[in-house]
Write a structure and sequence with these properties.
alpha/beta; 5-stranded parallel sheet
Length: 254
């Protein structure tokens, strides 16, 4: 892999899955930094729908936001599919999504975000990109311990010590609710970015793209769909976390 000249202060490498959160983070980085590259991971997930969305999202960003075109650089896809074989979770197998005795949902892939950032740091080292941007969040999330700010601050220090480079892990969604993430999309790119998130990104654990709701495509029932939908309606209606609207409310799928 040939490295390009880069300035670790003005560039960023975005962990980009093709989902809602990573798309908003990509827009966040493009709005701030002169050079932005993306990295995705095939870790043996149960479906490839989200990965298929990645290139469409990148292409739509260039088409809808010409001011960001020159800033959007290379995309990298890393195959770490052997990682998914370590633990049989609901995201790396056909197992049902249930709550485990640990109190975590079976969608938790142990160490996934830690591995992602280590690989991203290795790539960023070669590409001259020392700011790593991820969509992790410790507000509206399922309790994953590798989404916590304390976890990622500790990991940042380990990466710095292990590379002798002042890497920075940036998590712009860490303290935002899902409703606030929708609001950030609106702030960064107006209706055009919100529409892009609805039409082109994918969040559903089941990989469902056949049913379209006001908030996007999905099964409408898995935890990811419920969280995305609830955040959408809270943002749209100004509920601020007080409502209990279902994924299918208030309008039926079209």
């Amino acid at each position: 892999m040939t490295a390009e000249p880069g300035n670790g202060e003005t560039g960023a490498l975005v962990l980009f899955s093709g989902g809602q959160d990573s798309t908003v983070c990509l827009a966040y980085a493009l709005d701030r930094y002169d050079r932005v590259e993306t990295v995705g991971f095939n870790y043996g997930q149960r479906h490839g729908i989200e990965l298929q969305c990645r290139q469409r999202v990148r292409a739509e960003i260039v088409r809808r936001f010409p001011q960001w075109e020159d800033r959007l650089g290379s995309d990298h896809m890393l195959d770490i599919s052997s990682f998914g074989a370590i633990g049989e979770t609901s995201l790396t197998s056909d197992a049902d999504i249930v709550m485990l005795e640990s109190g975590l949902p079976s969608t938790f892939v142990p160490g996934r975000n830690l591995v992602f950032f280590v690989y991203a740091a290795a790539l960023g080292y070669r590409r001259g990109l020392h700011r790593l941007v991820g969509g992790m969040c410790e507000t509206d999330f399922s309790g994953y311990p590798d989404c916590r700010d304390a976890t990622l601050r500790s990991l940042q220090e380990s990466i710095r010590l292990g590379t002798d480079v002042p890497f920075e892990i940036e998590t712009p969604l860490m303290s935002r609710s899902k409703a606030q993430t929708w609001a950030l999309a609106q702030e960064l790119g107006g209706d055009a970015l919100v529409t892009l998130v609805i039409e082109q990104t994918h969040t559903c654990y089941q990989g469902e793209r056949g049913t379209r709701y006001d908030w996007g495509y999905g099964c409408g029932e898995c935890p990811a769909c419920e969280l995305r939908a609830r955040g959408y309606w809270e943002w749209r209606e100004g509920i601020g976390g007080q409502g209990k609207l279902s994924a299918r409310s208030p309008s039926a799928a079209r």
